[in-house]
Amino acid sequence: MSGSHHAQQFAPPAALTAGPRTLIGLSRADLEAEIAALGEPAFRARQLWHWLYHRGATDFEAMTSLSKAFRARLATHFRVARPAIASAQISTDGTRKWLLRFPDGQEVETVFIPQEERGTLCISSQVGCTLTCRFCHTGTQRLVRNLSPAEIIGQIMLARDEVGEWPASSEDRKITNIVLMGMGEPLYNFENVAEAMKIAMDPEGLAFSRRKITLSTSGVVPAMARCGAELGVNLAVSLHAVHDDVRDVIVPLNKKYPIAQLLDACRAYPGTHNARRITFEYVMLRGVNDSAEDARTLVGLLKDIPAKVNLIPFNAWPGAPYECSRPADIAAFSDILFAAGVSAPVRTPRGRDILAACGQLKSASQRLKKSEREPAEVPA
């Protein structure tokens, strides 16, 4: 299924998103077109862009460099709303998780992980997920729909609201890194993700360096090269197994794009070199993928790829089909990789107590029936 077809099929239903159009998520060109349609010069769009993404304005009345009459016209035609916060939780380790609700009632989770040297915001790209990875709680929730550019970039903007980080500055940031590792497979919603990330990387937008943005994929091979060419962000690959028969079970997408194909796409990913490695995510499942033989096989698979391996202790949830590997086995696995020259740190789980850790995100959103999410067809 192509990305565009996927995007159309799982777009927000028009009937549920009616009303004034949001300006959040529009490209610069589209924003200029909207402002030109109001009879205003192009520089007004640049002023508006500054207010939206540098100043974080949530109300047209706050945009004091614009005339009162223009602000009133904007308020008549458009909105700049954020997603609504359905609930907010803070872990004992300081991790924050927001359940965000959109106008059609669908929900996703966004997580902020503060650390001494960085602050990482984990954002979602879809409501639910289509991939059904066996170790992932999100994968137990069917795909409901793709998120729009406004809903993707809106997660970053809301998090900035919550941590008090406006105007956007490149110094002393609390949110330093963005990871597309929340709910959904970003490469199955690539057009919308790309629009949002271009705003995130715009120097006059949210001003994140592409080196501070990481897109995580389970291995949608045909879209990987396009991601590298158009966005140039860091790539993280959910590998989780070294043999196809095992990966077929825990990451079913492997049946379509097996390990050899996936690693070929990694070798070809633009801009990869020793100073800018591909991160391979590897969740540690007891008795499934955590043997010394697995570790040695992984070393062989990655021998010609500039790589770092994140070893992730399995984060259980009620009814999970696996157990986490024993600490001694995780340490031994890591040691084998490090001894072979492959960086393989063990990720410290964050936010487990609020189900905010890797693989634990899920919302109560349910897939609407086709008749509910699509307006009735009108005969020609």
How much of the sequence lies in strands comes to 15-25%
Order of helices and strands: HEHHHEEEEEEEHEHEHEHHEHEHH
Structural class: alpha/beta
Largest sheet strand order: 3-4-5-6-9-10-11-12-13
Structure report:
- The chain is α/β, with parallel strands linked by helices and 380 residues long.
- It has 2 domains: 25-80, DNA polymerase, domain 1 (Orthogonal Bundle), CATH 1.10.150.530; 84-354, Aldolase class I (TIM Barrel).
- It has 12 helices and 13 strands.
- It has helices at residues 3-9, 28-37, 42-54, 68-77, 149-163, 190-201, 221-230, 244-250, 259-267, 292-301, 327-339, 370-373, and strands at 21-22, 78-79, 84-90, 96-101, 107-114, 119-122, 126-127, 145-146, 177-180, 213-217, 234-238, 278-284, 307-313.
- Helix 2 packs across helix 3.
- The model is unreliable at 1-8, 13-17 and 367-380 (pLDDT under 50).
Main attributes?
380 residues; DNA polymerase, domain 1; single chain; disordered N terminus; two-stranded parallel sheet; TIM Barrel; disordered C terminus; alpha/beta; 9-stranded mixed sheet
Concise summary:
This protein is α/β, with parallel strands linked by helices. The chain is built from 12 helices and 13 strands. The strands form 3 sheets. Strands 3-4-5-6-9-10-11-12-13 form a 9-stranded mixed beta sheet, with helices on one face. A two-stranded parallel sheet has the order 1-2.
